Amino acid sequence: MRTPLILDCDPGHDDVFAIWLAAADPALDLRAITTVGGNGRLSHTTYNARVVTELAGIAGVPISAGAESPLVRLLTPAEAIHGDNALGGPELPAPAREADPRTAIELIRDTLDASAEPVTIVATGPLTNIAMFVRLHPDRLSRIERVVWMGGSTGRGNITPYAEFNSWTDPEAAAIVLGSGLPFTMIGLNVTHQVLTTREVVAGIGAIGNRTAAFGVELLSFFNATYETDQGMPEGPLHDPVAVALVARPGLVTTVRARLDIELHGTETAGATSVDLLGKLGREPNADVATGIDVEAFWKLLEEAIRTLA
C-alpha cells in the first residue's frame, strides 16, 4: 500500500529533489504540496514549486501557499545558499500551472478530510504551516499519521553555531508541533551531512539523460558553489529528500527514541535542538531522531525516481 503524503516545503534546491522523490517513488502517494517562507520569500518558494513540478511532468498534485513569515520572528531567507529567488542557477521557465486558490492550511485540512487513512506530513522547511494547522484544527490531528521533519541537529548548527536553519527560522513553530502529541521524527544535519553531492553523484544524475536530470545538475552546480563559499563544503549536503526517503523506505534511515526540546530563548542558542540521546534529563522520550543513513541506497533511490520523470 502506498503511503499518502503531504509535502510542506520551501524550495530551495534540496526541496526540489524532495518534491521529485515524493512524486515519483512508487511507495508514496503525494497528495498535496504546501509552501512556506524559509529558504526564500513565499512568492518565490511557491513559484519554484510550480516550476519544478511542471518541468518534471508531475500533474494532479495541488500546490498551495502558506505562511509568509515565522510565527513571531522576522524571516531571513537563506540567500547565501539558495540565491535571491531561492532557486539560483538555472533559468526558470514560466510555469503554466497555477497555485491552488486554497491556503496551505485549507489544503492540508481538505486533504486529510478526503483521505480514508491517516496521512503522513513531510516538512522540509520551517514548521510554521504545521504549527498553524495544529492551532486551528486540533480536532483533525488524529488524521495525521506522523510528522517527519528535516530540521535540527544532534550536534552543531549551520546558520548559528548551535541551530540548523529550519529550526532557527521558526523555533516557536517547531515547539508547538513537537508539543502537540503528534508522532514526530527529526532528521537533522548529523545525518544529512552524510549525503554529499559529490562529483560522482552529480555525474550519475546527469547520466540519466532526461530533462529533469539536466535541470537537477544545474541546481547542484549552483548549490555546491554556494555551499563551498558559505559553509566551506565543496560538496553540498542534499538535506531535504532524506526526510522523504525515510518514509519511502523504512530502514534506509536509522532512528532512536529520544527526548527532543527546542531552545526558544537562548542568546546564542535560539533554535537549537536539544536531543537527550543518553537520557540524562530523565524526561520522557517524545521523538524519533535520525542517527544514520545508507548513503549508497539513498542515491540509488533518488536516481530511480528521477529516471521516471520527464
TrEMBL record:
Gene3D superfamilies from the UniProt entry: Ribonucleoside hydrolase-like
Keyword field: Glycosidase, Hydrolase
Signal sequence segment: none
UniProt GO MF annotations: purine nucleosidase activity
Coiled-coil stretches noted in the UniProt entry, renumbered to this chain: none
Record's protein name: Pyrimidine-specific ribonucleoside hydrolase RihA
GO biological process, one term: purine nucleoside catabolic process
Chain ranges of the Inosine/uridine-preferring nucleoside hydrolase domain: 5-300
Gene Ontology CC annotations of this record: cytosol
Organism: Nonomuraea aridisoli
